[in-house]
Amino acid sequence: MKSVTLKDVAKAAGVSYATVSRALSGSPQIGSDTRERIIKLCDEMGYTTNYVARSMVMKKTDLIGLVVPSVDNQFMAELAYYAEMSARSHGYNIMLCNSGPDLKQEKTVVKLLLGRQVDGILIVPQSPKTYENIRAYTDQVPTVFLSENLRDQPQSYVAADNSHGTYIGTKYLYDLGHRDILYFGRRHTTTHQLRAEGYMKACQELGLQQRFFNSEFTRSSVNNGYELAKALFARPIDYTAIFASTDSNALGILKAADELRIDIPGRLSLIGFDNIPSTDLPRIELTTIDQPKRDMAIQAVDMLRDKIENGTQGYVHQILMPTLVKRGTCREIG
Amino acid sequence: MKSVTLKDVAKAAGVSYATVSRALSGSPQIGSDTRERIIKLCDEMGYTTNYVARSMVMKKTDLIGLVVPSVDNQFMAELAYYAEMSARSHGYNIMLCNSGPDLKQEKTVVKLLLGRQVDGILIVPQSPKTYENIRAYTDQVPTVFLSENLRDQPQSYVAADNSHGTYIGTKYLYDLGHRDILYFGRRHTTTHQLRAEGYMKACQELGLQQRFFNSEFTRSSVNNGYELAKALFARPIDYTAIFASTDSNALGILKAADELRIDIPGRLSLIGFDNIPSTDLPRIELTTIDQPKRDMAIQAVDMLRDKIENGTQGYVHQILMPTLVKRGTCREIG
DNA sequence: CGAAAAATCGCAAACGTTTCCGCTTTATTT
DNA sequence: AAATAAAGCGGAAACGTTTGCGATTTTTCG
């Protein structure tokens, strides 16, 4: 279990360990002959540089803390995947933390990450309170928020243009002939507020009546979408399409509709938001608005890297464009 | 950005920094009055212990490297989630690495993890070759394999009893009246070999003919399941049920069947394996075999902790029981 | 009241790196 | 050939922590 250190190969090579360190790091003040000899020796002896020791003196861990409410969630899993890939390709590693549903744990993990001396933190907030919750720490370490739009808060973030997403979605529904479109979902976060706004803007432009049905739940899951949709369908259905604020909710609606034999897309068109993998399944084929998760993750680590490596100070807000993904749950009507 | 160190609070408290360290760690050789004073001071000054410095002297990072082919995969995301939660509750943090599809990258990331001085490695292998691929490193650091059955290899692992899963699945199909059950899937890993064996065993016991249709793909995805299923359905359907070796494949089969208007479960019963979240969606409701992902993850970190903390040396093989999840894709015939 | 024992605390080494600075040795120039 | 420059390398400090050991003070007890 005892690993070989610089000293070990230095002794074997008959040089000082400073020399070995320089040889490895490609310092120009080492002769090319000794360098080759040392490198070969390191290889033979199985030397790997101890990153924790290196971090000590470099005051840099090449570590990025990634905190997500739950990686066990298709959306965040995808973000986490691309973030890790991108980070590693730039020499960083990811320390993963699930912040769970409560703010206490969220605060705990960012504190923990600070103790670990991460160079930066990438956080997808669990609630609109997250910003306040961890603000005490965000000035101690470069931080960028991911996926949640913070509007004009003094905090860097990258998010999708949620407003635009619902805007193009409703227009699409309109183009298909729909004139009565119900918006299904709460406005408990800025992200969801913006989604509602995009819908409202489109309605105004198109001369449509705005109609809302608010989910009472903070966390959108297919199950609470389902529960709520049952309540919705207990009332008269005087609309021809539903815009669900998330795919999860849309899936719940689908489930309730199937149960009540309300034909989708026959009687009701349905469109979701996020484009999570489950939407692309057979029998589901949910039309939705795609959040460019890959680009979001990549841009977020780029932004973070810029702060870390160049000490960039300002707050930059990166807004990426979502796109419409036409599948099977929206139908043209006459 | 400069964080406060032991020295800083020591100076402020008028004691040596050794005293501060001991006060924080609860050493008995510190007076309770000074201890309280110091703790309060630490709190006021916002001191957090530097884990990388601590790791240096402790020769322990409290870090577990988690390598998965891709967290962007429901099955692994779930494992990752529970592993992180469990690890953190025991004082460990997770360093996440996607090993991707190729062995080179897998080897790269475990090397990298070693350089990071992780206390242990939790790895869900990307292929049967993983064991050989990283064997050079698995004796340098406690390692446990997750989700892949390694049979009698000298390597600790926790996996589901895959053989038992297909066994109970086939029996379930039999009890529903099915006498011609096709097994759909390759046997490219031990895990899948075992799944096939469970099916074979059940067939023998029940006097059923064994019928295989092999997927040519290493990675099972709904898409290649779909492609293959189309080929399958081009031939006469002289069976009444399909046992898909993975849910992903089952989903692909479902897609192909829908396209060809082969009624599931009307004409064909279908059962999958893994119980990924997508199986529980409306319109899908795939009957499947559940791998106890939560327990698997938890047991794996327990096993790893045992190796790390107690230096346990032997190889332990933990096999967890899968269970049948009855949903909507299997029908009684008769 | 004096001595031994117990209770507190400080000193300094150690963990494995990186890098500044200085010391040789060799090459270059006049 | 002497002086200067350049190249190659070693010594040692520093990063922030833990901990064995010694030093000092306080308590205890005969």
Describe what this molecule looks like in 3D.
Two copies of one chain form a homodimer. Chain A is of the alpha/beta class and 334 residues long. Chain A has three domains: 6-49, Orthogonal Bundle (434 Repressor (Amino-terminal Domain)); 60-160 and 293-318, Rossmann fold (3-Layer(aba) Sandwich); 162-291, Rossmann fold (3-Layer(aba) Sandwich). Chain A is 45% helix and 16% strand. Chain A is built from twelve helices and twelve strands. Chain A has helices at residues 6-13, 17-25, 32-45, 51-58, 74-89, 103-115, 130-138, 162-175, 190-206, 222-233, 247-259, 293-310; strands at residues 63-68, 93-98, 120-123, 143-146, 157-160, 181-184, 211-213, 241-244, 269-274, 287-290, 317-320, 323-325. In chain A, the strands form two sheets. A six-stranded parallel beta sheet of chain A has the order 2-1-3-4-5-11, sandwiched between helices. In chain A, strands 7-6-8-9-10-12 form a six-stranded mixed beta sheet, with helices on both faces. In chain A, α7 (130-138) links the parallel β3 (120-123) and β4. In chain A, α1 crosses α2. The first copy, chain A, is elongated and about 85 Å long. The model of chain A has no long low-confidence stretch (mean pLDDT 95). Chains A and B meet through α4, α5, β2, α6 and α11 of A and α4, α5, β2, α6 and α11 of B. Chain A binds a DNA duplex (30 and 30 nucleotides) through residues 5-7, 15-19, 21-22, 25, 27-31, 34, 49-59.
